[in-house]
Amino acid sequence: MGMEIMRRLEAIAKDAALQRSVELFSIELKGQGARKILKVTIDKEPSVAIADCAGMSRDLSARLDVEDILKGGYTLEVTSPGIDRPLRNKADYIKYTGKLAKIVIRGTTEGPGVAAKEKCFIGRIVSVTEDTVTLEDNRTTVEIRFPDIIRAKLEIEIK
Questions:
Q1: pLDDT digits (tens, 9 = 90+) for 77-95
Q2: What does the domain layout of the chain look like in residue ranges?
Q3: pLDDT-derived band of residue 109, with 50, 70 and 90 as boundaries?
Q4: Residue 115, Cβ neighbours under 10 Å: how many?
Q5: Cα separation of 140 and 34, whole Å?
Q6: Domain 3-79: what homologous superfamily?
C-alpha cells in the first residue's frame, strides 16, 4: 500500500475519531488483496469502552465504503491500546510518570565487531527531561536517552 493511501486512511480515521470524541492512537494496514486488515487503535480518558470501539467501527466502515480506498475488501479491527499500552513519545512518558514501564534499548558494542543484543529495563517512570526518561526499581535508578529506545510499554501492575 502506498503512502498516499495510508495518508487518506489516517485522515478519514482521525475525522471519525474526532466525531466520536476519541483519540486516534494508531492505524496499521497489513496484508494484501481481500486479506487486508486495517487495525485502528483508539484512546480516551479515562478509558475506552466497548461501545466506543463498536461506534468507531460502524462510522469508519461506512466512511471507508463511501471512499472506496481499499479495493478488494478488508477486515476492520478497532481496539484500545490496552493496559500494557506502548509508550510512543515524550508526552506519553510525561503522562504516565509514576507508572511501571518496560523499555528496550539498543545494545552497546562490546569490542571489535561484537554488538550486544537489546537491553531491557523495567521500573517506575520517575522523571522525564528533554532528552531522557528516568526509571527506578527497588534498587537502582537508570537514565535512558530517547534516541536509544527501540520500544517501550507500560507494564501491567497487579496490586
A1: 999 998 889 999 999 999 9
A2: 3-79, 90-154
A3: low
A4: 10
A5: 51
A6: Cation efflux protein, cytoplasmic domain (3.30.70.1350)
